[in-house]
Amino acid sequence: MRVRRELSPTLSTYCLRGSIRRSQHYVRIVTGETTFEQYVEVMFQSDAVFESLCLSQTNDSSEAQRMVAANIELQNCVNQYHDPQNFTNSLDELTVEKRKQFIDFNCAEFEEIKKCYIPFERQMKVCLSERDLSMARTLIILEKEFEFICENEGANVVPMHRSNYSFCAGNLNVLLQQCSEAQWQQLRRKTISTMTTQDCSTFEELSNCFQENIKKCGAPLFAQLFAIRYRDIVRQTPCSELIAVRED
Fold first, then answer.
1. E strands, 117-238, in order
2. Would you tell me how many other CB atoms lie within 10 Å of the CB of residue 214?
């Protein structure tokens, strides 16, 4: 049995990975539309959720197993190129003088990581509905986040006199739990098509609270990356029309 290391929170789920308690039991065969709780599992890159969504869409156990295998291989591939602890430590030690070296090294890594996504995305196209494929791309592939870090020679990565990236990355669950658990409970069983204006407001409130907590913790870059992801999620929901998405 292969042992998989956790994907970096800065690459895969830097803002929510581990932040929401995972269910003790997961229903393998999914019927109906995908819920937000299941999308969280997609973001966690859970083998079980990919298998279930693929079976629901294709009714083909062979394709479902290929989806699981592609998910495992993606994580193994990413872990060849990225050390999350080194990434956060480097952010905490970042100076103006060190920024170019940091950007050059990590953006070269990102280019290699993008290649890891190719077979995974190919299998997702076989296994997932159009809506789930779009959401999974947003939650996992994160090209816009890469672009934000790397554009303009890393101008968006600002050295801080005192940052706390390593600590914040390991305590994202605490930062989210400081927001409303009741509000998350309201959203977890919802699907994209059943979201109401109130649900959109709740989602926005949770997002704003979480971003503010990340900034206060001492990891402003992570808050900016989460904002990019949040806007892309909202654009795929009725919230894009029900509530205006604020652009920075």
1. none
2. 26
Q: What is the DSSP code string of 14-32?
A: TTTTTTSPPPSS--SS--S
Instruction: Tell me the two tokens of residue 193.
Output: 């098509």
**CA quadruple 51, 55, 57, 63: dihedral sign:** positive
Q: Where are the domains of the chain?
A: 29-245
What six digits make up the tokens of 62? 């062979």
Distance CA 79, CA 7 (A): 7
> Using one digit for the tens of pLDDT, what is the confidence trace for 18-63?
333 333 334 434 447 999 999 989 988 999 999 999 999 999 999 9
Which tens digit of pLDDT belongs to each residue from 79-136? 999 898 999 999 999 999 999 999 999 999 999 999 999 999 999 999 999 999 999 9
